[in-house]
Amino acid sequence: MSNQNDLDDQLYILLASMKEYREAIADDNKRLEQFYNQVASGVLDKAEKSLENANKKHTGALNNSIQALNEATNRLNLKFIIIFASTFVAVMMVFILAIFLYVPSKDEINERRADMAVLKKYPLQIRESDGETLVRIMTKK
Questions:
Q1: Who's near 135: CB < 8 A, 6+ residues apart?
Q2: Among positive and negative, which fits the CA dihedral 13, 15, 19, 24?
């Protein structure tokens, strides 16, 4: 029986050590889980912070670019307005100058009409050919 008691004692010792190992493994699993959770949350926090910083930097750079583009657009708009206005004024001045140079005044038109009325009294044939005024004096035969 001593052999049986020794065997039972060994079994109890083995069961007790297995129970301790199970508890140790469960504790190790809990500690590993906590460690993994801490690592994961730390990595997530660091990644989130770095992404926020990068987002802020890029947003600032984009805002600066937008502001520079707006300023350039305003300058170009101002230049366009100035060029357009000066071109319009120049065209209008040329048009008004052309009117003064090529369109006769009312006094000159009246003078020409009076000259034509005087010339109609005489026996003349007046016509235009190739931009020249031709006058034929009719004589009595």
A1: 124, 125, 126
A2: positive
CA distances from 30 to 43, 46, 95 (A): 20, 24, 94
The contacts found for 86-89 with CB under 8 angstroms, 24 or more apart, are none
Q: Is the dihedral of CA 52, 54, 58, 60 positive or negative?
A: positive
Per-residue pLDDT, averaged over 55-61, amounts to 93
Tokens 């100058």 belong to residue: 97
What stretches of the chain adopt beta strand conformation (E)?
Answer: 124-129, 132-137
Please give the Cα distance from 61 to 63 (Å, whole number): 5
pLDDT-derived band at 84, boundaries 50, 70, 90: very high
- Give the SS3 label for residue 105: coil
- Please report the beta strands in 1-45, taking only residues with DSSP state E, as ranges in sequence order: none
Cα 83 versus chain centre, distance: 22
